[in-house]
Amino acid sequence: MDKLKSLTIFMRSAQCGSFSEAARQLGMAPSAVSRAVLRLSLFCHSPKTFAISEF
């Protein structure tokens, strides 16, 4: 997956506040959304929640 697609997925996840909701809106599996966002290393995450990390 290219970085532009991953960034699009990241932005939708941030807007939704949920990987599951972003996945639903993007027509993707939640695990695919999670993997795409984690590749960018922009989120601090735990099994139940996530937040945009500070730079």
Q: Unreliable stretches, pLDDT < 50, 5 or more residues?
A: none
Ends distance: 24 Å
Amount of beta strand: 5-15%
The structure class reads: mainly alpha
What helical percentage do the residues reach?
55-70%
Tell me what the structure shows.
- The protein is mainly alpha-helical and 55 residues long.
- It has one domain (3-52).
- Helices cover 60% and strands 11% of the residues.
- The chain contains 3 helices and 2 strands; from the N terminus they run αααββ.
- The chain has helices at 3-16, 19-26, 30-40, and strands at 43-45, 50-52.
- A two-stranded antiparallel ribbon has the order 1-2.
- α1 (3-16) packs across α3.
- It is globular.
- The mean pLDDT is 82.
Write the layout of secondary structure elements.
Layout: H1 3-16, H2 19-26, H3 30-40, E1 43-45, E2 50-52
Antiparallel strand pairs: 1-2
Helix pairs in contact: 1-2, 1-3, 2-3
